[in-house]
Amino acid sequence: MDDASAARVYSDPLARWFVTEAYRITDTARLVEASGEQLVAAGIPLYRLAYFRFTLHPELIGNAYTWRRGKGLEVGTAPHGLRQESRYRDNPLPVVFEQQKTIRARLEQLDTVEAPVLRQLKQEGATDYVALPLIFSTGHVDALSVVSDQPGGFSAQDLDRMYLLQFAFTRIVEIHSLRDTAVNLLDAYVGRAAGERILAGEVKRGDGQTIEAVIWYCDLRGFTRLSDRLPREAIIALLNDYFGAMAQAVTAAEGEILKFMGDAMLAILPVASPAERQGVAARALYAAGVAVKAIAALNEVRAAAASPLLRFGLALHIGEVMFGNIGASARLDFTVIGPAVNRAARLEKLCAAIDRPVLVSAELAALLPADRVAPLGRHRIKDIDEPPLVFAPA
Predict the structure, then answer these.
(1) How far is the C-alpha of 274 from the C-alpha of 272, rounded, in Å?
(2) Mean per-residue pLDDT, 31-41
(3) Per-residue pLDDT tens for 177-232?
(4) Do 303 and 348 share a domain, yes or no?
(5) What's 84's DSSP letter?
(6) How does residue 6 score in pLDDT terms, banded at 50, 70 and 90?
(7) Strands 72-79 and 60-68
(8) Could you give the angle at the alpha carbon of 61 between the alpha carbons of 59 and 63, nearest 5°?
(9) Strands (DSSP E) along 100-198, which ranges?
(10) What's the pTM?
């Protein structure tokens, strides 16, 4: 940008807002909404402003933030595979994303419009459409589109003002994108609570705190034999079915999945205060019932397909654990450790011996109504001197 351009930009109140106030907005949806409002207030005949972001997420390929004058903001999500779908390929955005080109369509001058999104906008009364690439410092490309419904569309001055602001908007959303990507990946790989604490600065070995939690430890039965005789794709599908059912039950109960270890899963339901212990215990037991039903439903489908059935053991225990960074100096695992975790793992091994899918420790059973659990007597557990009393869901 030359000196004349810089002087013109920063004499524009709209530009000053982008380089001062806009940087304080940390929520992408609010940024898009506020940007649309500011553009209209600055005299630009804007009908619609849309920001399209590709991101790293295990379930989504990206997000679309669409603001319309007088109608507010809509946020949409795009699944993996969108790039191959006609609703994406038949519109202007592939050229913007893949060729990094700016596209303009003077809709009021076109008798026929092929692209579905442009046809819809024309039906809404739009007169002008501009889509442009937002190129990050990493080379990643997002896209922004602006739409006018004023006769004649955008003037050359309108477009100049918006093009000059393109860099400022790009830098802001790049910060948002990098932050959201970090959050998404940490949520996916270490869990939401652990991810929040890592981003908050708990990154040194030994960082952590002692918390009380219900420990959920589950494991597949006969997995080694299945691994020996099933093809890799079938094993992956089996594990995804199993972990999907278990994980959904835990997260619905406000639990936190900490890790997958081969065919085992470790999760916790934190207890924030002593007054919440009974409520958390009840949620954990209910979640175990949900998991049992989900696996039973999966087994019906698998039986119909002549696939091996899923058999599992699940142990629930409550106790204090150290929740934090464990590992080598440069390779850490944010997890829980302590005698309570060991007890849950030992209890889970007992599921196979007494042929029960779910076992509950005496400590957790004491927090539950008597009619919710049934005593199974005392059973010897590895490395536990006194055989503990064990319970099962009633």
Answers:
(1) 7
(2) 96
(3) 999 999 999 988 888 888 888 888 888 888 888 999 999 999 999 888 888 888 99
(4) yes
(5) G
(6) very low
(7) antiparallel
(8) 105
(9) 103-105, 128-135, 141-148
(10) 0.78
Please, which residues have CB within 8 angstroms of residue 191's CB and are 6 or more apart in sequence?
256, 257, 258, 334
SS3 content of the chain, % helix, strand, coil (to 5): 45, 25, 25
Whether the CB-CB separation of 200 and 186 falls below 8 Å is answered with no
**Exposure of 147 by Cβ count < 10 A (0-12 exposed, 13-18 middle, 19+ buried)?**
buried
Find residue 324's DSSP bridge partners: 208, 335
Give the distance from CA 283 to its chain's centroid. Answer: 22
How high is the mean pLDDT of the chain? 92
C-alpha 369: how far from chain center = 35
In the block, which residue shows the tokens 């092929």? Answer: 114
Count Cα atoms within 13 angstroms, Cβ side, for 89: 6
The rounded distance, in Å, linking the Cα atoms of 341 and 183 is 27
Burial call 106-120: b when 16+ CB within 10 Å, e when fewer: ebbeeeebebebbee
Residues 235-257 have a mean pLDDT of 94
Strand (E) or helix (H) holding 273? none
- Write the Ramachandran bin of 79: left for phi over 0, alpha for psi from -120 to 50, otherwise beta: beta
> Do residues 175 and 267 share a domain?
no
- CATH number for position 372: 3.30.70.1230
Residue 198, H or E segment: helix 192-199
Q: Exposed, middle or buried: residue 303 (CB in 10 Å: 0-12, 13-18, 19+)?
A: exposed
Measured CA to CA, the distance from residue 177 to residue 317 in angstroms comes to 39
Q: Residue 70: pLDDT above 80?
A: yes
Domain with 130 in it: 3-189
| Number of separate helices (H) and strands (E) present in the chain | 13, 14
Q: Average pLDDT in the 157-173 region?
A: 92
> Which of these three, 189, 220, 239, is where a domain ends?
189
How many Cβ atoms from other residues are within 10 Å of residue 162's Cβ? 21
Type of residue found at 273: S
Query: In the structure encoding, which two tokens stand for residue 186, read together?
Result: 């940490």
DSSP summary character for residue 46: -
Token look-up 């599992």 returns 312
Burial of 219 (0-12, 13-18, 19+ CB in 10 A): buried
Domain count, the chain: 2
Query: Whole-angstrom Cα distance, residue 368 to residue 289?
Result: 14
